[in-house]
Amino acid sequence: MTTIPWERVRRAGSKLTTPLHPDDYLSLLNPLWSSRELRGRIEKVVPETEDAATLVIRPGWGWHYEHRPGQYVGIGVQVEGRFQWRSYSVSSPPRRSGRTISITVRAMPEGLLSAHLVNGLEPGTIVRLAKPEGDFVMPDPPPEKLLFLVGGSGITPVMAMLRTLDRRGTMPDVVLHYSSTTPERMIFRDELAALADKHESFTFHQLHTDLDGMLDLQELDAVCDDWHGRETWACGPGPMLDAVTGHWESVDLEERLHVERFSLELGGEGGEGGTITFRNSNKTIEADGATTILEAGEGAGVGMPYGCRMGICHTCTVTLVSGTIRDLRSGDEFGQPNEPVQTCVTAAAGDCTFDI
Amino acid sequence: MAIADVKEYTHLTEEEVEQLGRELDAIRADIEESRNADDAAYINRMIKLQRGLAAAGRVTLMAGTQSRRTRVPAAVLGGSLLGLAKILENMEIGHNVMHGQWDWMNDPEIHSSNWEWDTAQPAEQWKHSHNYVHHQFTNVLGHDNDVGYGILRMAREQKWHPYYLGQPVYNALLASLFQWGVALHDLDLERIRKGEKDPKEMKRQLRQILRKGRNQILKDYVVYPALSGRQWRTTLVTNASANLARNLWSYMIIFCGHFPDGAMHFTEEELEDETRAEWYLRQMLGSANFEGGRTLHVLSGSLGYQIEHHLFPDLPSNRYPEIAVKVRALCDKYDIPYTIGPLHRQYGQALRTIMKLSLPNHMTSSDDPAPPERRDTANEPPRDRKRRSDEERQPRRRELGAYARSPREREHD
């Protein structure tokens, strides 16, 4: 292993480049040679279905290939000069010796960025990355019996888990129920079928909802009669997840259910709101307790920094000078003076002032 | 003559001034909506070019000076590349990034909140003294500390004192040590002398300046000379020359912004109830442009478009040329003076003012364009024109860029 103390080399190098970092020069030679912001280069764009593609990304300096199967990463792409951020599940299995990661993206009808990622991204493009996050992960070692309930592009984190199990050669008793509107739109269909052929302990149920309708959870027994006894991971559209959560709660099994939502569900419990002052921009705005500080700032015309807009990447962090804010995910309140807060997931709880 | 009311001076009615303000707002909105990949490519290209020049300059100096035959050409070439890199970094890149001109890209590496530039003054203090004080109170006597920088007498309204007889000398010193003059600018030496400065804030600022200045000096006068081995002396002298060239150049460009004839000063009365439209008008009357080709404009940080820069300090600098066409048309329409001339004439006028104002008013004549019959404030008894603290100032305008501390700067508390 390397014995060169890179951190010390860099610090010494910065005496030559001050006030810049050595990375600011090195990234001119190779855009990936910088750890100031995590970067990646698109190596390949692999079409999966008509509207979905897998992006194979080679991360640059500072990236640790230590994501856990099921986690997602933030990806920032410059569109018309402006960095836009989204988060996508990593579909490749973690590999310490790995050189690339893959994310699989479906172009959403109203999603400008997802369409750009699927159709408009040339290999060689440099993107920004945010560290892997998320608790929708496969424990190591895996439980003995598993059930995956998947709808549409919800397959991506599950695929990372299945590939990991396959690669380690430890495929336990796994049932996958995968709903998709049509067979053509089913991402990874061939690979999943091949996995089912290869592993006897892996059962793959496909449901094409345009033909056969949605899965009725009352009839889950027909698909998997021992679902009560399985650790379950569910990922897909919001309504599907609501139904699954309700079903598991009705039999007091919610502890064994892991759910991943692709859109941020902010707790409904909005606070009282208040007047938000943006000190340096000299702007103020009234905001209710359900409007995020980020949205309020944008509404007031403040040049708010932002990234994933779901509380992951910390790009949107701004210093709260005074006042109290509420984290809309947890309901926790924060009010330390000069505390850096994530504006995309917090709202005013009374009047507050920000240092921007 | 300092102007007490921009409306009165320009003979515009309140309605006309407001209309002018709306038309300028429309120009701003136009640019904001059309910022695109080409603009982003421009600043990225500029940064790439600048870093390439800097690296090439340093390497040329270290390697090229080792052989006796290449020593002199390498020193000349390396010094020129380095000087050019420093000028580009300070003018077209650093100054403009810190104004927030590129914040819209949402790129944390090119953002006003954490950009640090290659000069002695810490970015945070620059953003306060420049983005806020100078751009908000442009040319208002007693408020804008850039009217003479507390060193020179640049307006006839500023009270004469025998100290100013040395003005030609101070000017030459300021020009050659410009980066250090700028470094001390936000400290407000006058206030410190009078014991009015908060000692805690003063210590914090001083620490910041010392840390930044130390790193700058180490880099140019210790580390790179040391890396040049036996030729350390050549590298040291060349680095000093590059810094000097940058100092002289930025000094000259900056003196062309508000000191040529036609760039007017204002009295405190103008600030009272000043509307946004009147603020625009004050910026137009108080700034001066100079003419030149694209290269000259880039090397001067687009400050040849000083008027446009003061109207829209946070719009991308590569758009100033197209904005200038529209602003000039508005000036014609409303019969507002638009001060512009070749660089040598603009600087010549600034230099002449420096020389003239080293003498008492009665010994020299004013070069301001003759005002129509209006109140002349030059003969009024001098008012209190000391520098104001932030508490004594009016609330600030919005589009002036951030000036508070970035997270990185805050760590140094």
Structure description:
The complex is a heterodimer of chains A (356) and B (413). By secondary structure, chain A is an alpha/beta fold. Chain A has four domains: 30 residues, no CATH class; 98 residues, Elongation Factor Tu (Ef-tu), domain 3, CATH 2.40.30; 116 residues, Rossmann fold (3-Layer(aba) Sandwich), CATH 3.40.50; 84 residues, Ubiquitin-like (UB roll) (Roll). Helices cover 23% and strands 34% of the residues of chain A. Chain A has nine helices and 17 strands. Chain A has a six-stranded antiparallel β-sheet with strand order 4-3-6-1-2-5. In chain A, strands 12, 13, 14, 15, 16 and 17 form a six-stranded mixed β-sheet that branches. A five-stranded parallel β-sheet of chain A has the order 9-8-7-10-11, with helices on both faces. In chain A, helix 5 links the parallel strand 8 and strand 9. The two termini of chain A are 44 Å apart. The model of chain A has no long low-confidence stretch (mean pLDDT 88). Chain B is mainly alpha-helical and 413 residues long. Chain B has one domain. In chain B, 57% of the residues lie in helices and 2% in strands. Chain B has 17 helices and four strands. In chain B, the strands form two sheets. Chain B has a two-stranded parallel sheet. In chain B, strands 3-4 form a two-stranded parallel sheet. In chain B, helix 4 packs parallel to helix 10. Chain B starts with a strand and ends with a helix. The C terminus of chain B is likely disordered. At the A-B interface, helix 2 and strand 4 of A face helix 3 and helix 9 of B.
